[in-house]
Design goal:
heterotrimer, A alpha+beta (about 725), B mainly alpha (about 350), C mainly alpha (about 325), B: about 350 residues, mainly alpha, MetI-like fold, 12 helices, C: about 325 residues
Chain lengths: ~725, ~350, ~325
């Protein structure tokens, strides 16, 4: 009896186990609701708009923050439309009287004394801001009776605050070097708040310095701690330098950003810079409520020592904005959940689009209120193989990782395999505005330099690399082989230009002879010339990058040159790049905004990585190119501008600091229940336009995920059966 | 020109000397009556014979892949070194394709119009290299990692184990202190840190693995030495006034040798498997070298293709599995023979 | 007993100090403060910002001896003492990656690791002991022979193959479990079943073989012969005498695995998307998050030592012959 009962229990447990078996990685109600199921593979590092720079961060936070402008969801080429602003303003050249500092000062002076009034000529943008916009509910706001929750109306001052944060020396905003010098008065804000090294004068003591800079004698101990525990005995007038730090003073005025009233903002530029409007469409310039920053500073820095508070850049740990979604929860390596923002303004699905959009059904929801999806669940999926399998099972609506998409559409020439098509999976492609390239370090004594011979050497290497085959093997023939740094879809794109570096092995060998390395042999040593390809190997992508390295090596070695692959960890690699200690590297650039300047600046001399810590990793510095760049940078899109771009491309192609790889062509797979999808690599806030059809999804999941039990049962039965003969023999023996 | 020949000859000689040394030692031991008996017993187990045969096959391929000669080409009437060519490459020279092709397929996998240049028993990988050839080359990496690391571990582990076990007191405290401290740190973290310091490379990998895994051997040798120390033969040697050095290396070492042999053989398979995990973390051998770890790691993405590319992982896995299995079975048999505790024969129910 | 435990603890202290020393040497050799600073502040950060960040974090102090500082601070105002102090007082500070308190991070990450490694540990122990008992019971029959054969087969497969294979079989073909993911509360059962299964199966071969050796060694001992000659039932001998005596080596071996429980299994965590500590440690290592790594290693070392002490004590509970000297 007892034995029977335990057997019964066992069977019951097994039954329960089997019943709970399902490969559904979500809660049941999540698949059934109007909820987007998505994946992410890298942990978000920042959610503060002033610091976040990666596209995978933008896919999350751009649903939460909104900026003054946005791009039209359907129209191509991209068109700026108002978002928080009433309309897109036109620049006006005018004389303005501004209050400006006599000279860049530091916080050691009283800020009210040092201003003078002056009239300058500036480019002015006057932006009117929509009136009835509220921040998403957040405890840092006071209770609002009208909305019956903790919120506040959006004010023009919030934009000024955001701009000041961009110029805050402690926050090190990635777009600082591009944007700050352009706006009147913003650089002064930076310089005023920069920390200072002061030289001791005769008669100075720590206390007197504390009184002077902090208006408080007690700060002497702080100064001492800031400077390796220095004390009064160690001070040597004229020699000792002391580091002084103060919290960033946000009350210091910026003369070029004028708030006329709560809903009117005027921005003054020193010179013409049409790209400013694009920056105003990015999350860096999203409005930032002061009180939220103060709220989190108070919460997180309460227990920190004074000097730590001064030293650590404080980034917002939780995003608060005016966008369609709010961050409901975020658990590291697990999930990010976005929820609908109840206070989201009235925004409607666009009524116009391109011609094919109507055919594709992208205009079916025209005029309906946004957003359509209630909740977005991003699940952490570091392994690509699980993303793919979950997509196949219907547990992901689309997979958000662009880089490896081509792996799945192996079907002949860019077509989806039949099996996928039968499942109702949709393939979308879009030419991306980006460029991938191998770069030469122009500062390198062997591979760099601007002499005729060096130029031939680089051209020879570039011509030996078969990009066509590279595309075929690694990218399913997708992508366009670049002719200049400017990708398609951007003003200045050229179909075909005088080629200096298209694949041609014979020509490459001739060029190599001209460069003085016949058959790849270095005449100085009598051995093959050896060049180094520098790369970083990290845990995530090593399996993807290895074949590329091999391919590169084999292609170039056809010239008789030797290629050494120096694969190091990411830190060493970064250090090598910063020190200029490398020869060839791979890099890519995805546009910030649709303007050729955003690509040409990758080769502008004063953006050199080694000398200026900016994005020109090839350290290319050609005075002729630089001059043309400065001219082109601030121009409107005219024929003249196009001519200059052609000229610049020609200079680059001749000098050959890059081996062009491709302008990528991204392919995405979507399930049929995932609607209103228009592929783009520029519009990050697109989730509000998208829609899911839960019943369709449920049906798919039911159809393709029926659990199969019998092999497991069979296994256990076989296992049990294998013991029977042994037990029988033993029984016999003991009897 | 001569330097390249010398270089290649030296490299080949190194491997030959090590393998030859191994064979010589075994033959030398075979003259000893006790060991002769042991070898006979091992040979009497069928599975050991099979495993030994398989290991020899692998060793043979390893040898072929290690003996190389330099290739030159003529430029401006001067001979310029191109690369080294191993015997394996002379015997088996598969054609180079453009990209993937399935095992025995006539056409490319992704481009059905493109005919293959040769036949590939295990297909080709994304770079168009013959997968079978890569698997063969993986043998060299596996043996280098397993063998070289063992060569690093052996002297350290044996020396400190003997010293600690024999002298006890201060020496013992110091050695146990060092290894118990190392044992506190999770092996994988220590490995990653060391690899970050040394940089990528086979030799570096071996050194890092050596640092993390000498502890096990040392611990076992120490324990065994402590047992042997109190045996009569050691006591009598000491009574005869023999030096400590002589006692340790002449008397105790031969008596702990079997333990060392068993431990290092079984550790060998662990080292080969470690390479796979390190490759996954991007810390294994340099990317241009073919290794099983890299092949398996590579296949993570390939399995997600549609249709699936399975031959890379299956080939690498089979090669690795068969080697490790043989080593394990062989090691097991040696253990059963040498270690009286595990002998099943003596036990009758 | 009390003095024994005290002595054991006193012995563990220098080992933990050694761990501190190793982490110190390793990681200061591994990176320069500037690389760390650049990583946190961004590549484009200004030089003076970097300098002052390094200064603030105290990373520009000398390693062991500060010649500039006065008096006793020559020795105390150094990187090494800062390092030791932060560990001894458990003040790990904030992570370099996202500036959140490390202690909180470790606690949140340790949970998932434990929920999956603890069952693996217990079930693995249970299954391997029972199978090794079965093999010992049926020794020299075909079950023992093929069983050991299967064990060797099982331990010759790399864990990565187990993971990829089981995901393919159970989630894609049989559709019994989700491929990867995580949930909170009881819902997580669905997610951890497969990783537990993989963990148990992958470790089973090696441990069964090991325990079987121990069991069979015990069967040759005199007391077993005595028990048998008394006419005791074979199964009684096995369970009452052999198992009890084999428990000591088994326990020792099991305790060795404790720090790795806490660390989780890195590969399993990555493939199954478990937000555990193993992946946390490796992430930290790859991104030069020195305070996080040293905290993880330090806590691991302490737990390991505690485990060792507990084993020594449990020896006495299992086997009364062990006397505390």
């Amino acid at each position: 009896m007892v034995q029977n009962r335990s057997k019964f229990l066992l069977i019951l447990i097994l039954l329960i186990l089997f019943h709970s078996c399902s490969n559904n990685p979500y809660k049941k109600e999540d698949i059934a609701g109007p909820i987007l199921l998505s994946a992410y593979s890298s942990e978000l590092k920042y959610v503060d708009p002033v610091k976040s720079y990666y596209s995978y961060e933008a896919t999350v936070i751009d649903q939460i923050y909104e900026s003054l402008f946005q791009y039209h969801y359907l129209k191509r080429p991209y068109q700026l439309i108002p978002c928080l602003a009433e309309e897109v303003p036109e620049p006006v050249v005018k004389d303005v009287m501004i209050k400006e500092p006599y000279q860049p000062r530091r916080f050691d002076r009283d800020k009210n004394e040092i201003f003078q009034k002056r009239t300058i000529q500036a480019i002015s943008y006057t932006i009117r801001i929509k009136k009835d916009i509220y921040y998403a509910p957040h405890p840092s706001f006071t209770f609002n009776k009208e909305k019956k929750t903790n919120t506040r109306r959006l004010k023009a001052g919030d934009f000024l605050y955001a701009f000041k944060r961009i110029a805050d020396p402690k926050l090190a905003c990635p777009i600082f070097p591009v944007l700050v010098p352009k706006i009147v008065g913003l650089l002064q804000f930076y310089q005023y708040n920069k920390e200072a090294l002061i030289t001791i004068q005769k008669g100075d003591t720590l206390e007197s310095i504390a009184l002077k800079y902090y208006k408080d004698k007690k700060a002497a101990s702080l100064i001492s701690r800031l400077n390796k525990g220095i004390n009064n005995k160690d001070l040597k007038p004229g020699k000792t330098k002391l580091l002084i730090k103060k919290p960033t003073d946000y009350s210091y005025p910026v003369s070029g950003i004028i708030i006329h009233d709560d809903h009117t903002l005027e921005i003054l530029l020193k010179e013409s810079y049409p790209q400013i409007l694009y920056w105003l469409a990015m999350h860096f310039t999203a409005p930032m409520p002061k009180e939220t920053i103060a709220y989190y500073r108070e919460r997180d820095l309460k227990n920190q020592s004074e000097e730590m508070r001064l030293a650590i850049p404080f980034y917002l740990p939780y995003p608060v904005g005016t966008g369609p979604y709010i961050l409901a929860s975020r658990k590291p390596r697990y999930e990010i959940v976005l929820k609908k923002n109840p206070l989201f303004r009235n925004e409607f699905y666009p009524e116009e689009g391109m011609q094919e959009d109507r055919r594709k059904g992208l205009l079916d929801d025209a005029g309906k209120r946004l957003p359509f999806i209630d909740k977005i669940i991003f699940k952490y999926n570091p392994e690509y193989i699980s993303v793919w399998n979950k997509f196949n099972q219907g547990y992901l609506d689309a997979s958000g990782i662009g880089k490896e998409h081509f792996d799945r559409i192996i079907g002949e020439n860019k077509r989806l395999s039949d099996r996928m098509r039968k499942k109702g999976v949709r393939l979308e492609s879009s030419g991306a505005s980006d460029i991938f390239y191998y770069g030469f370090n122009m500062l390198d004594p062997v591979i760099g330099g601007y002499s005729e011979k060096k130029r031939y050497l680089r051209q020879a290497i570039a011509r030996a690399f078969n990009v066509e085959q590279y595309k075929k093997i690694f990218r399913n023939r997708r992508g366009i082989i670049p002719q200049s740094p400017v990708p398609p879809g951007i003003f200045g794109f050229q179909e075909k230009v005088e080629s200096y570096n298209n694949f041609d092995l014979k020509k490459a060998k001739e060029l190599l002879i001209k460069a003085g390395y016949k058959d790849g042999i270095d005449p100085a040593t009598g051995k093959p010339l050896e060049i180094t390809y520098d790369t970083a190997v990290s845990s995530g992508d090593s399996s993807a990058s290895r074949p590329h390295l091999k391919f590169f090596k084999e292609q170039i070695e056809m010239l008789g040159i030797k290629v050494r692959i120096a694969a190091t960890d990411l830190n060493t690699y970064r250090k090598k790049i910063l020190d200029g200690n490398y020869q060839i590297f791979e890099s890519g650039w995805l546009l910030d905004y649709p303007d050729p300047e955003n690509f040409m600046f990758l080769l502008y001399g004063p953006n050199g990585t080694v000398k200026h810590h900016a994005d020109n990793r090839a350290n290319y510095d050609n005075p002729q190119f630089n001059e043309l760049f400065e001219k082109m940078e601030t121009m409107e899109n005219t024929d003249e501008r196009f001519r200059i771009i052609v000229q610049m491309s020609d200079i680059v192609n001749r000098d050959c600091p890059w081996i062009y790889l491709f302008h990528s062509e991204d392919y995405y797979l979507f399930h049929k229940w995932y609607q209103n999808v228009k592929v783009t690599d520029l519009i990050n806030n697109s989730l509000k336009y998208k829609k899911v059809d839960p019943p369709l999804r449920m049906a798919y999941i039911k159809k393709y995920n029926k659990p199969v039990y019998w092999p497991v049962l069979l296994f256990f039965i076989l296992l049990g059966a294998s013991f029977i003969p042994a037990i029988l023999t033993l029984r016999r023996k003991y009897r | 020109m001569l330097e390249y020949y010398i270089n290649d000859i030296l490299r080949s000689l190194f491997v030959l000397v090590i393998i030859g040394g191994g064979i010589y030692t075994v033959l030398r031991m075979n003259r000893n009556r006790i060991w002769h008996d042991v070898f006979r017993q091992i040979w009497s187990v069928p599975i050991a014979r099979i495993s030994f045969g398989v290991i020899c096959l692998y060793l043979f391929v390893f040898l072929l892949d290690s003996i190389s000669y330099p290739l030159f080409k003529e430029v401006n009437k001067k001979h310029v070194f191109v690369n080294s060519r191993t015997l394996l490459e002379v015997i088996y020279t598969p054609a180079r394709e453009e990209s993937y092709s399935a095992p025995m397929a006539k056409y490319q996998f992704t481009d059905k119009k493109m005919e293959n240049k040769g036949i590939h028993p295990a297909g080709t990988n994304i770079n168009g290299e013959d997968v079978l050839m890569n698997a063969f080359k993986g043998i060299k990496v596996a043996f280098t990692i397993g063998g070289l690391t063992t060569l690093i571990i052996l002297p350290i582990g044996i020396f400190f184990g003997l010293i600690a076990g024999y002298f006890g007191k201060g020496a013992d405290t110091t050695v146990t202190y060092v290894y118990s401290t190392l044992a506190c740190i999770p092996e994988i973290l220590l490995l990653i840190a060391l690899m970050n310091i040394f940089g990528n490379g086979v030799l570096q990998l071996c050194i890092a693995l050596g640092i993390t895994s000498w502890v096990g051997l040392c611990r076992i040798v120490r324990g065994e030495t402590m047992k042997q120390k109190n045996m009569e033969y050691v006591q009598s040697a000491r009574a005869l006034g023999q030096s400590h050095f002589r006692i340790i290396f002449k008397h105790i070492l031969p008596n702990v040798m079997h333990i060392i042999l068993i431990t290092s053989i079984l550790r060998f398979s662990g080292l080969v498997m470690a390479e796979v995990i390190l490759s996954y973390l991007g810390l294994g051998v340099p990317p241009e070298i073919a290794s099983w770890g890299i092949m398996i790691d590579q296949s993570r993405g390939e399995l997600a293709r549609d249709p699936m590319v399975w031959w890379n992982i299956i080939t690498a896995f089979s090669f690795m599995f068969i080697l490790i299995l043989s080593v394990n079975f062989f090691g097991d048999t040696i253990r059963d023979v040498l270690d009286p505790r595990t002998r099943v024969k003596g036990v009758k129910a | 007993m009390k003095t024994y435990i005290l002595r054991r603890i006193l012995y563990a202290l220098p080992v933990i100090f050694g761990v501190m020393l190793i982490t110190f040497v390793l990681f200061f050799y591994l990176t320069t403060p500037e690389t760390i600073a650049r990583q946190i502040l961004g590549e484009k950060a200004k030089k003076e910002v970097i300098q002052s960040w390094i200064h603030m974090k105290g990373l520009d102090k000398p390693y062991f001896f500060n010649t500039e500082a006065p008096g006793i601070r020559k020795v105390t105002d150094t990187l090494f003492i800062d390092h030791i102090w932060s560990l001894v007082t458990f003040q790990f500070g904030n992570s370099y990656q996202d500036d959140k308190p490390i202690m909180n991070k470790i606690i949140t990450r340790a949970g998932p690791s434990l929920t999956f490694t603890l069952p693996v540990f217990i079930m693995g122990l249970f299954l391997s002991i029972s199978f090794s008992l079965i093999f010992a019971f049926f020794r020299a029959t075909y079950i023992d022979k093929y069983g050991t054969f299967l064990c060797v087969l099982g331990m010759s497969i790399v864990i990565m193959i187990y993971i990829i294979g089981f995901q393919w079989l159970f989630s894609i073909k049989l559709k019994l479990f989700p491929i990867s993911g995580w949930a909170e509360g009881t819902d997580k059962v669905r997610f951890i079943l497969l990783p537990i299964f993989v963990g148990v199966i992958a470790g089973l071969g090696g441990s069964i073989r090991f325990y079987r050796t121990i069991m069979i060694e015990e069967t040759t001992k005199d007391y077993v012969r005595t028990a048998r000659s008394k006419g005791l039932n074979e199964s009684l001998v096995l369970f009452k005498h052999i198992l009890k005596n084999a428990m000591i080596p088994i326990l020792t071996n099991a305790v060795m695995a404790i720090p790795f429980l806490f660390m989780g299994a890195l590969l399993t965590e990555n493939f199954f998307g478990i937000p555990g500590l193993g992946s946390f440690a490796v992430e930290a290592l790859f991104s030069n998050d020195f305070p996080s790594i040293k905290a993880v290693i330090y806590i691991g070392a302490i737990l390991y030592q505690i485990g060792l002490i507990l084993t020594d004590i449990s020896y006495a509970l299992v086997d009364p012959r062990v006397v505390f000297e």
